[in-house]
Structure formats: C-alpha cells, structure tokens
Specification:
Helices cover 31% and strands 28% of the residues. The protein has a 7-stranded mixed beta sheet. Strands 20-19-21-22-23 form a 5-stranded mixed beta sheet, with helices on both faces. β14 and β15 form a beta hairpin.
C-alpha cells in the first residue's frame, strides 16, 4: 500500500514542479541546508519583502533603511559576543558518526537514525570562517555574518550624524545571514543561508516595556496582512536561561507549520548591550545626545525580527488547499492577491486561431504594463490552463474568445470560486485593480 504524502511533502513537490523552490546544486546531488528560489519563488519572496518594507519602513517617519556588508571587521563579532558564545550543543553518534543538536533530541543517549550510542555533548560555534586577502593566517580571518543586526549597530553613529533623528527611531534591513547549522531540516525552515527582515529600534530605557508592547501589537498586524488567522500564531515567552546573551526579554512568534508550531519571528529587548560593547571595543563614542537637554546616554534597543524564508514557507502552507471545483479535484494555492507571484493569466480560447492569439496578446500587453506580474498561457485546453494557474496561486484568469472579437469584452475567472464575469477590455485594469486590492 502506497504511503500517503504529508502536507510538507506535497508542498516540497509542488514548489519544485511549478518553479518556486529547487534544491541547491541539485545536479551535483545538492548541498544540505541550501535552496534556490525559482521564478515564482523569487516573486513570492519579493512580494513579502516589499510588503514588509512598506509596512515597517516606508509608511513610517521614524525608520531608516540600510544595506550593510556581509563581511565585517572580525572585532565586530568579538564585541557582540558571537566569537565566544554563538554556539549550539552538539552530539555525535559513535556508530554512524552523524551529528545532531542535543536540544532537538528526545533521547540524548540514542541516535535517532541508527539507534547507536551518542557521545558527550559539546558546544559548536555556528559561524562560517573565511580568509580575506592573499594571506591565510590568523590575521586574515573574517566571518560570514551570523546576524544582520550588527550591521545596524555599527552604522548607528552614521545614521545619527547624517539624519539627526529623535528617539525613538529604528534602523531597518533585509539581508542574508549564515549559520553553520548542525542539522538543517524541514525544507526551507532551518537552513545555513537565510534572509532576515528586522530592525533595531532605539529607545530611552524607561520606555522599553511600553514600546515592546507596541511592536508586539504591530507584529500581529503584520501577520494579519499576510492573511494569517489568530489561530495560526502562538506567542512564546522565553524564560531565563533560554534567551540570547544580550536579551533581557524575548517573545517568539510561532506559526502552525506542518511539522509543528515553530518560530517565524520574535521581539528581543537587547538593552544597551550592543552599543555599549561596541563603544568599549572600538573606542568610538556611540552615545546619543538628547537634542533638548543635551544629555548623553546609550539608547536601549528593541529588535523585531522576521525570518524571510520561514515567511515564504508559512505563506505556502497557509495557501495550500486541496478541494473540488466543478466536480473535479484540484490543488490550489489560495494566496492573498497582493502576495500572489502572478496576478493575472491571459489565455486565447484556442491557440490555433491567430485572431484570438493576437487579441489575447493585446490584452496581455495592457495588463503587463499595469501590473507586471502577468502570465500569457496558451498551452493545452482551457481547463488544464485553469488548473495550472490554480496550482501556482494566480487569483484571476482572463480569456479572450470569439465574442471578444465582436464586442471587446473578455471573461474574468476567479481562482477561489470559479465564478466568471464578462468585463469590457476598457474597464479591465480598473476591475483587476479593485479585485487585487
């Protein structure tokens, strides 16, 4: 009897088949913990990024964007505590030699793969090392950044000097980080090369708790903007001993993934740890000068963080649906229209009728100029095209038929309901706009 695929297996299969996500270096057998985004995956990821940037940066007056270098002076990581403390507990099977994170195992004595005995626990630093320049000695060592946060902290003085912001204000960034994960797993959930959307929000110490609650509320608004329901998200308050070394309070947000509720983002109260450590290590005064009182002090920091890859996976999981439409079973990705990689697909009813193809191309050009994310599809019969577009989450399909040639109207079909309506071509862009928004 054939084993039924899990939801995660179905999503992984669909993601490859339809050009969302491929295994990294696949023709060479892949590389664990690395994934490549295909055309539709890139579009979905960019839509999430752009929505985040609009919501947390462009729509506000107190946020400043940066894009810092991945390679940084190694003293940055010494000051931040990563060189000495960025590690996970590692155990190795004495039989098969596979390595595991000790804190992810139910039985810390028995190998989950072969049943062999596990060795003693040791700490494993997760930073990737590299050498810079021609020499390959201790003086040439740099690290692939394990977090984007330090790029914002080392640019704190630059932002203050250039823009003279008043507290509270934030520095935001979307960028890649690298972590030598012991055991990458669960598709794109735990990887070695990841992208983070986050900002450091600088505040007076006395206001940290008030503003923590403010960003907690804004984070839930963000999840709602992605189409998530309250039941999809769970708050997890980290107790003493489980927080990062810099944090006085951390609240993680868990999403209901197929494997379990797991972390998608979080808010950390980093106190003044980072700016104080960089002041001490660099010798550069990173105190903020109050423009009213001239008081000098090191601001405290709140850090809302969102894993971009985990958001992509969460949006795919939330969208994935198996249902029936018109008596036929189908797979459909019910993306919110503003997140869909393709907003509209345009079909000629028949591909062997030049007049229909020509008119469909005209309609496609009109929509392409307006929306960008538009696909032309004339492969197979109309039913197969609908199913193909349903499977990649296209909200609306536009069909040019023989009536179009006489009355300049087209059929607009809704992905979720299958409902169709006739719309004049002259009103098409405004109609699609109203449906997408």
């Amino acid at each position: 009897m054939k084993k039924e695929e899990s939801t995660m297996e179905k999503i992984v299969s669909l993601a490859k088949r339809r050009g969302f996500i491929y295994q990294g270096s696949e023709i060479y057998g892949g590389l664990a913990g690395t994934w490549d985004y295909g055309p539709l995956g890139v579009a979905l990821k960019k839509n999430i990024e752009n929505l985040w940037w609009r919501m947390f940066v462009e729509s506000r007056e107190d946020m400043y964007g940066v894009d810092s270098a991945i390679l940084m002076n190694p003293k940055v990581w010494e000051a931040s505590g990563h060189v000495s403390g960025f590690s996970d507990p590692l155990v190795e099977c004495q039989k098969c030699k596979r390595r595991f994170r000790a804190d992810h195992l139910e039985d810390k004595n028995k190998c989950p793969d072969c049943g062999g005995k596990l060795g003693g626990e040791r700490q494993f630093n997760m930073m990737f090392k590299a050498n810079i320049g021609a020499a390959e000695d201790g003086s040439s060592i740099v690290y692939m950044r394990p977090e984007t946060a330090q790029g914002m902290f080392v640019n704190f003085k630059n932002i203050v000097d250039s823009f003279h912001p008043k507290l509270p204000f934030g520095i935001a960034q979307i960028g890649k980080s690298f972590r030598n994960e012991i055991a990458p797993r669960d598709f794109i959930f735990r990887v070695r090369e990841l992208e983070i959307m986050e900002f450091e929000y600088f505040v007076e110490e006395k206001r940290w708790n008030e503003l923590f609650e403010y960003w907690r509320e804004k984070t839930h608004e963000w999840f709602a903007a992605l189409g998530f329901e309250k039941s999809d998200i769970k708050e997890v308050e980290l107790p003493d001993g489980e927080r990062a070394h810099y944090s006085k309070r951390t609240m993680d947000f868990y999403f209901k993934y197929p494997h379990k509720f797991d972390e998608i983002g979080g808010i950390a109260y980093r106190t003044d740890f980072d700016l104080r450590r960089h002041t001490e290590t660099s010798g550069v005064d990173l105190r903020y000068v109050d423009q009213t009182t001239n008081e000098k002090f090191i601001p405290h920091v709140l850090e809302p963080t969102f894993g971009l890859g985990r958001h992509v996976l969460a949006v795919l999981v939330k969208a994935y649906t198996e249902d029936e439409l018109g008596g036929e079973k189908r797979v459909v990705l019910r993306f919110p229209p503003h997140l869909a990689p393709v907003k509209v697909a345009v079909f000629p009813l028949l591909k062997n009728k030049p007049e229909l193809v020509l008119k469909a191309r005209e309609v496609y050009t009109i929509l392409k100029k307006e929306f960008g994310a538009v696909m032309f599809d004339d492969n197979g019969n109309i039913g197969k095209r609908y199913r193909r577009q349903d499977e990649i989450g296209t909200p609306f399909c536009v069909t040019v038929d023989f009536d179009t040639l006489t009355d300049d109207t087209i059929t607009v079909r809704d992905r979720d309901t299958g409902k169709q309506e006739r719309v004049p071509i002259s009103e098409l862009t405004s109609r699609v706009n109203s449906l997408i928004l």
